[in-house]
Write a structure and sequence with these properties.
This protein has 115 residues and is of the alpha+beta class. The chain has a single domain, classed as Trna Endonuclease, Chain: A, domain 1. It has 2 helices and 5 strands. The protein has a 5-stranded mixed sheet with strand order 1-2-3-4-5. Strand 4 and strand 5 form a beta hairpin. The termini are far apart.
């Protein structure tokens, strides 16, 4: 597996643990269709969250959230529409970005909600 995929997978696993610890229910990891992939699909109370995860290995590489482009968000929204066609019970939907970045001793996880 290439280095960047290992970093991304590690970030997604850290976010999965973080979401679970905050009471989110995880539905799908790396869900994909013809329009693209959604990193994590989770729910909290009555809201369904489509979550894009972005991870940086070094602070000098920029902010993790800078990795989520307009094209990535459009792909995520189109994939979410397909997911909702298959799971129509969800009425409240939120698009979030989870940014994972290094700090001195560990990784920091930041939730950018309803982007």
């Amino acid at each position: 597996m290439p280095w960047n995929q290992l970093i991304g997978t590690n970030g997604e696993m850290r976010v999965k643990e973080w979401l679970s610890s905050k009471g989110f229910r995880l539905h799908n990891l790396c869900w994909n269709c013809a329009y693209g992939e959604i990193d994590i699909i989770a729910s909290f109370l009555d809201q369904l969250h489509f979550i894009a995860v972005t991870t940086k290995t070094f602070a000098q590489n920029g902010l993790p959230a800078e990795g989520i482009t307009r094209k990535k968000m459009l792909s995520c929204k189109q994939a979410a529409q397909k997911y909702l066609e298959r799971h129509p019970r969800w009425k409240k939907v939120i698009f979030d970005v989870m940014a994972v970045s290094p700090t001195e001793n560990e990784q920091e996880i930041i939730l950018l909600k309803d982007v």
